[in-house]
Target: Anti-sigma factor
Amino acid sequence: MIPDDPQERQLLIAEHVLGLHDPQRRQEIDAWLAQDEEASRLAGHWQEHWLGAAELLEPAPLPSRLWRRIARQAGVAPSRWQWVWQSPVVWRTVSASLLVVVALLLGPLRQPAPVYTVILQAPGEAAAPGWRVTVSASGDLQLIPLQEVAYPRQHSVQFWTLQDPARGPRSLGLVERGQPVVIPASQVGEVKSGQLFELTLEPPGGSPGDRPTGPVLFIGRAVAL
Model:
């Protein structure tokens, strides 16, 4: 059933573009889009917008263990999957899908979009986003967990950013496990496209110096919206 609420309809279309529905639901939505000119136009807007935005993202190679797992589950040779996943077209599609997920997580579409967004992922795990960062037009930053992650309790998780490699990383404070964080613009400072953000595992109370000392848990770069 197609919802009557405009926001729910927009969210439904976004999910449809992403391919999150089962075949029966997709058929129902396709029939609706064929009859509703405004809904069809919105679906086209989603596709064009996110495919264009995906050009901002750089592809990252998948780890070899993931190749083997994909090949094992699909029953094909790993070399065939590698050829598919090294295709720029496939990567643009995957990147676009990830951006649609980001848009869905941002909340109702009528709210002002952030100036920058960052998806923090575990190193080498491109398909496993752990945290989302958004920077509003006013410069305030919001860090939101996307998954449950277990950390050693005798350690702290610290949030860092790197804008200028010559100056090195700068701490944005400690992060409570599984808790969202809001950081004011005065503490965040200027944010630029491509700026690095990361979460590291540190001793209790955080890094003893002004640089990360522990392993990187999640990392990502800012993308301008």
Remarks:
- The chain is about 35% helix and 20% strand.
- The two ends are 32 Å apart (CA to CA).
- Confidence is low (pLDDT under 50) at residues 106-113.
